[in-house]
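TICKET: design request
STATUS: open
ATTACHED STRUCTURE:
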């Protein structure tokens, strides 16, 4: 899955990007605004896509002076599919939470970080996860290892991307803080908590 543009997994055309922008707001947008949000220097292709989508009834167009305003027609039969396409990151987070909630051995903390958390990267980017293991659980505990290995397989099945799982025991957190490992900067700025307390609280010793 293209981490920065996940909608391309279904449709690599500009139409999918346009729909994703419209799904993210109820405010009417001009073609130029949509092109800017899609970071496209020319909005002619965006207008072509909008006109196609208006023809299908999936996008509403209204005249506003010398411009046209566009909104997603949320009553359209295809609108739920558009919402799902626009919220693939949220779907990933929900699946991660549901999976980890079902673990027999609960982790101290799990978070998504790196390019997937930032909404960057591409099909070759890892889905980076930090998993903090409880103090009394050995890293080679068969039940624990089974959970970690299954999670890695699930993430790859869900996204097509390899899971980059950084696993650390809770007792090793003080050493991680002391050494100021490179991963800390990413965790502090990007981490999205999946389970347990916020990583900033763990790293501060709170």
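STATUS: resolved
RESOLUTION: sequence designed for all positions
ATTACHED SEQUENCE:
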């Amino acid at each position: 899955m293209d981490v920065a543009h996940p909608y391309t997994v279904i449709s690599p055309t500009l139409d999918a990007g346009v729909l994703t922008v419209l799904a993210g707001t109820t405010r009417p947008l001009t073609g130029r605004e949509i092109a800017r949000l899609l970071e496209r220097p020319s909005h002619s292709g965006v207008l072509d896509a909008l006109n196609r989508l208006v023809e299908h009834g999936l996008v509403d167009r209204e005249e506003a002076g010398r411009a046209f305003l566009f909104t997603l027609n949320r009553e359209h039969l295809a609108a739920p599919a558009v919402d799902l396409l626009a919220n693939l990151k949220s779907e990933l987070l929900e699946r991660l939470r549901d999976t980890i909630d079902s673990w027999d051995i609960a982790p101290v903390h799990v978070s998504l970080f790196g390019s997937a958390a930032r909404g960057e990267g591409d099909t070759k980017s890892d889905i980076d996860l930090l998993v903090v293991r409880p103090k009394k659980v050995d890293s080679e505990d068969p039940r624990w290892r089974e959970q970690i290995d299954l999670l890695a397989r699930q993430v790859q099945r869900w996204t097509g991307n390899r899971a980059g799982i950084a696993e650390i025991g809770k007792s090793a957190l003080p050493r991680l803080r002391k050494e100021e490992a490179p991963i800390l900067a990413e965790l502090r700025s990007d981490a999205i908590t999946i389970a347990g307390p916020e990583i900033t609280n763990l790293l501060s010793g709170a």
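CLOSING REMARK: The mean pLDDT is 89. Residues 27 and 71 are 7 Å apart (CA to CA).
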